[in-house]
Design goal:
alpha/beta, Rossmann fold, 5-stranded parallel β-sheet, globular
Length: 274
């Protein structure tokens, strides 16, 4: 079993490395976007799309598919990289990020992009939508699961907490909430704007089962997702991450939110990318 886990971790690391390159390339070509926000969550999305979730790129509307909602919609390059690599659309489309008439807009668009469940951009809405999908699944006796990712700055939106209350109120244990806890938001550090701590205790007070992990270690991500699968209660995974993870000179830099690399920085990033 340990050997299988080691092999799977290695496989996912290699996928995530390629996806990081895609994120940097598409945002550099576009000259805009949110590469650092995308890099902080890409390991988790890699685990979801290439290990955990049931989905079919040839049939994006498959009724039995698991659903993923990127509530922090500005990290769209991360989900676009996953969808392209999984085969939802040609990888060449990544180079058209944010272009006029492109299927890949600055925030996810469920009308334009195969594999996107719901348009997100206005922060705070993801779990509300996910709850509805999960509740419908329960009513229809479907086995699919719903995964929602919040950013930690996004938790300053009141709707997040209203929806978290709803999830447990209706016993939606087919929902897994993932919080990308990178500590940074649009204009600075989350704790200096409005500190969500003690986050775990707050979630537990809302009757969530909480699992805390390093969001860049597949050795921790995969078991956490498995715990969520087996839990009788809704599970929230608090994933400690690093904004810009993988490129040291852009990691944890509050001034780089929503800023693409220059062509020169991009070339340097490829040399140091981990």
């Amino acid at each position: 079993m340990a050997g299988m886990m080691d092999w799977e971790v290695k496989r996912l690391r290699e996928i995530a490395y390629g996806l990081r390159k895609d994120i940097l390339e598409m945002t550099t070509i576009a000259g805009s976007g949110h590469p650092t926000s995308s890099l902080s969550c890409i390991d988790i999305l890699t685990a979801l799309y290439f290990h955990e979730m049931r989905h079919d790129p040839k049939n994006p509307e498959w009724p039995e598919r698991d659903r993923f909602i990127l509530s922090k919609g500005h990290a769209a390059p991360a989900i676009y990289a996953c969808l392209a690599s999984a085969g939802y659309f040609p990888r060449e489309e990544l180079k058209k990020l944010r272009k006029i008439n492109s299927m890949l807009q600055g925030h996810p668009d469920s009308v334009k992009t195969p594999g996107i469940e719901i348009a997100t951009g206005s922060l705070g809405t993801g779990l509300s939508v996910g709850n509805g999908m999960a509740w419908a699944g329960k009513m229809d006796r479907k086995k699919y699961r719903v995964f929602v990712m919040f950013g930690d700055g996004e938790l300053q939106e009141g709707q997040c907490w209203e929806s978290m209350w709803t999830t447990t109120q209706f016993g939606l244990n087919n929902v897994t909430l993932i919080i990308d806890r990178n500590g940074l938001q649009n204009d600075g550090w989350v704790k200096e704007t409005k500190d969500p701590e003690p986050l775990q205790k707050k979630l537990e007070a809302f009757n969530w089962k909480v699992v805390k992990i390093n969001g860049h270690r597949f050795e921790e991500i995969l078991p956490a997702l498995q715990k969520a699968h087996k839990s009788r209660k809704p599970v929230c995974i608090i994933a400690k991450t690093v904004k810009g993870k993988g490129v040291k000179f852009i990691e944890n830099n509050p001034d780089l939110h929503g800023k693409a690399l220059t062509p020169e920085q991009y070339q340097e990033a490829l040399k140091v990318l981990r």
